[in-house]
Amino acid sequence: MARRKATYAATCHCGAIRIHVPRISRTLTSCNCSICRRYGALWAYYAASAVKIEAPKGGLSKYSWNRRIRAYCRCKKCGCVTHYVYRKKRRNPIVAVNAVNFEPSALEGVRIRHLDGAASWKFLD
Ligand SMILES: [Zn+2]
To answer: Which chain residues have CB less than 5 Å from ligand 1, an ion?
Structure first.
């Protein structure tokens, strides 16, 4: 019998949005750009094909700014920022999942890297 692969789910506070991923990434990114610092997000990047996003129809709100490259998605009901996607088609599409929505125990020991998205676009650590 085939065993189901274990997955992790990042869920918003009210539980309407559930994002399933096959593993927790080895590092998370904390970015100091004007939007990430306000969201307080910790980004975990996945190939879009590895991520399953469960959301009720119309349950997500999206926000884009500046050059409108990314669409930041949040639960319409509870307001938690769940992920972002790139708005234009790319060859290898990725989804950035906001890892603060995983259970804290899933993030134990995961390294947080600090990205200077506000200025140099380099890691500060
Ligand atoms: Zn919610």
So the answer is: 12, 14, 16, 75, 77-78
pTM for this predicted structure: 0.92
Where b means 16+ CB within 10 Å and e means fewer, 15-31 reads ebbebebeebeeebbbb
Q: What is the pLDDT of residue 6?
A: 65
Query: Is residue 2 over pLDDT 60?
Result: no
Ligand 1 centroid from CA 56, angstroms:
10
Q: Measured in angstroms, how far is the CA atom of residue 82 from the centroid of ligand 1?
A: 9
